[in-house]
Amino acid sequence: MKRLTEAEKIQPHWWRKSLIAGVLGLTFAYGVVGVFAWFGPGGIDAPMKVQLNMWLISFIWLSVVSLSFLFKTATTALYRLTSANIVIYLIFIGLWTLL
């Protein structure tokens, strides 16, 4: 079995990965829940949607934070999570302009 080189290993930048995932993961979770809240079934005024949205934020955020440690480096985590945020907010703005 072949040993991995230093470039192939996941780097232990856990402080930076935690900070990046904590901030960008939360903004990503807000974006996903915003799209669901405004444009999901029943719209923003659907009954019981407030509780679902509240719990969805924590589920998505903690999932992103947990999975952020699988990125090779903190720079990769920064680029990928920034890209995910840009995409979700472009979707939100695009759907908002269609209203």
Q: Could you please describe the fold and organization of this structure?
A:
The chain crosses the membrane at residues 20-40, 52-71, 78-98. Keywords: Membrane, Transmembrane, Transmembrane helix. With 99 residues, the chain is mostly helical. It has one domain. It is built from 3 helices and no strands. Helix 1 packs antiparallel against helix 2 (49-67) and helix 1 (14-39) packs parallel to helix 3. It starts with 13 loop residues before the first helix and ends with a helix. The model has no long low-confidence stretch (mean pLDDT 92).
Task: Give the helix/strand layout.
Layout: H1 14-39, H2 49-67, H3 74-98
Keywords: Membrane, Transmembrane, Transmembrane helix
Transmembrane segments: 20-40, 52-71, 78-98
The radius of gyration computed from the alpha-carbon positions, rounded to a whole number of angstroms, is 17 Å
- Element-level helix/strand string: HHH
Largest sheet: none
Report helical residue fraction: over 70%
Assign an overall shape. Answer: elongated
Poorly predicted tracts of residues: none
* Strand residue percentage: under 5%
- For the residues shown, what is the average pLDDT? 92
DSSP helical segment count = 3
Number of domains: 1
Taking the alpha carbons of the first and last residues, their distance comes to 57 Å
Structural class per helix/strand content?
A: mainly alpha
Q: Using DSSP, what is the number of strands? A: 0
Transmembrane segments: 20-40, 52-71, 78-98
Keywords: Membrane, Transmembrane, Transmembrane helix
